[in-house]
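Tutorial handout. Part one gives the primary structure; part two gives the three-dimensional structure as tokens.
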Amino acid sequence: MNMPLGAAVLGTGDVSGEHIRAFQANPHTEVRAILSRDRAKAEAKARQYGLENCRAYTGLDELLKSDDIHVVSICTPHHLHVEQGVACAQAGKHVIVEKPIALDLAGLRKLDAAVREYKVRSVVSFVLRWNPLYETIRAILADGTIGDVFYGEVDYLHGITRNFGLYPWLRQRVFGGTALLTAGCHAVDGLRWFVGKEAVEVFGYANFSKGNPLDYEYEPNSVILVKFEDGTLGKVATSIEYVAPYTFPIVLMGNHGTIRDNRLFTKRWPGQTGWATIPTILPDSGAVTHHPFIPQIAHFVECVLSGRESHCNVADAVKTHEICIAGEMSHLDGRPVRLPLS
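Part two.
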């Protein structure tokens, strides 16, 4: 395709702005449509980013009739992702879906089926896969520096308090779902990405802090244990009422060494007496402006133009979401849950 891919962005929140920036940075894309319930907000977003060839829509059906729209970024509240994603797939539009892609198993199956049936390309916005520390860790694992991983933990600790812009709706179960789905899924996906094996069992706990001071409708704190097919063990702790600066700690233990965030110790380096620190960019901020949307969307565009599937497509994201859903099932039933979910 010689002409730019026409892009549409659904939603006008902060994350939609980062998608717009990423499309603007890509020579193969042009943002031609923004969707909002409030047309004035869509028009204002277009002006904010200097989008001269961009139309404002209030209805998705009308937007999807446009022949000059080829890819759609779904940046709306969580509970809208399934229906909007299905509609885009049915219209033959390739999709980027913000996480979580669904809040329950039925929605997860519905979106996955639509993307498969209509054969559109997809990327789920587990954007940290393009974070420089993630890329560094993957390189270290690939060259065997710490050997075979037998244990990993990735945590998501972010105090989403009343002064957080999304708090009024995020605290509600119908919009947020669970702490794992609304936030901790990033950590679950990171664990899967590093271990590189299929998860087969999950056990989970969740709780409120004393008095539930932030009035969450679901437990804002959880811990899950994950067993992988080769016996590797994993742990993910999630807290969205964390009383401290945002942090995203990573620990990977192998039979030849250990990674702790950007620090490395390995017995393959003779004479090493302490941690070696790798100067790189860590996933240490919850701000969307800190996240690497530009390389993520560049990857997505390349997948669309070349006709290949992404490593981070909807089919792959289903596995991350199943772990999150299984964690909640285990917490409620008090028993381990086998994967994949039936």
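Part three, for discussion. Residues 162 and 246 are 15 Å apart (CA to CA). The first strand starts at residue 5 and ends at 10.
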